[in-house]
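Give me structure tokens for this 185-residue protein.
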Amino acid sequence: MLVLNLGLCHALAVTTSVYNAFWMTAAAMFILVSSNIFVSIIRKLVPWNVRIPVFMSVTVTFVTVAELTLNAYRPDIYNALGIYLPILAVNCIILGRVEAFASKNGVIVSGLDGLGKGAGFGIVLIVLASLREILGANTFLGYTLIEGFEPASVMIMAPGAFFILGLMLWGMNAISSGERHNIWM
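Here you go.
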């Protein structure tokens, strides 16, 4: 997310609390791993000219499974994630990995790739949500941090999401730039 700037819609929308970010991470990881494994299994059976619609159908199927499961067992989470859960069906991170990696590799490495990409996506979501929740609500996982501290409620709103994400992107670019110019050593 911080390197290719993909999946930013989810990062801005569901990171008002760490709890929401955790559940979006779990859903995305389930969808990534399941889609990668299934596409890897069927990759040699799918004609080249229809691979994208087939891979999208696979992804949409697992998004639907995640959505219906959350709606049945955790309606509070389902409602909190709102429209951003079904939008995972067309998330570039998921479709990109299915097309670029799972369609060309074996089952085990494709599953591990999905796990790794899901973990990376989740780390960004959880760090962003942690910063937003601490600065914007003076809470972490629902627990008040400092009694009497007046939080900057703008951090829970959209401008705060853009500000924190911008700082995270700046940090990532600084790290990448440092690697290219070897300024850290």
